[in-house]
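Sanity check

After download, print the first record. It should look like this:
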Amino acid sequence: MKILRSIAALIFGLILLSASCKKNNVQPQSELSKLPPATQTGADTFGCLINGQAFIPGGSLFSGSHKQCNYIYTGGGYYFTILTTHQDYNGLIKQVQVETDSLTISEGQTLILRHLYPGHANAVYAFIGANNNLNSYSTTDTSSGQLTITKFDQVNQIVSGIFYFNAIGAAGDTVKVTEGRFDMHYTR
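Expected structure tokens:
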């Protein structure tokens, strides 16, 4: 009888112990949480979701510069350009570019991203695959998006903003870029 009580007490103790243990389920990180926060401090960050997958400039040690931002006056107009690149270790190169042609930008301004011609803004997603073919997707008048300048500090040369766009490729297929954000120093 004493042995049965000991076994019963042991089983009861194991049940209580197992019930009090918390399972450590590691949740997968969401693609959105991989992006840098939308700041306005000149943090030199850029990120977006491309068809739901996180894109952040960077990659291979040997791939050179991963992002540049310019706001240049030339030829009678201002040209704003952000060009970002990510190269993975398999050689896949992805680029996201947002730009204006002969267009002054200002804080609080929202621009429609479409064809690039004077007085307008445009966005492009491109990648070079394993076969070294360039695949390019661009905004158009029918496949567009928006760019909002949330900060434009000309003294400290900081520009921040948010964007999204749908771009179309030569074969008629589309790419959806969402949750775009940048906070960069620009060169003149």
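If your output differs, re-run the checksum step. Summary of this record's structure: The domain at 38-185 is CATH 2.40.128 (Lipocalin).
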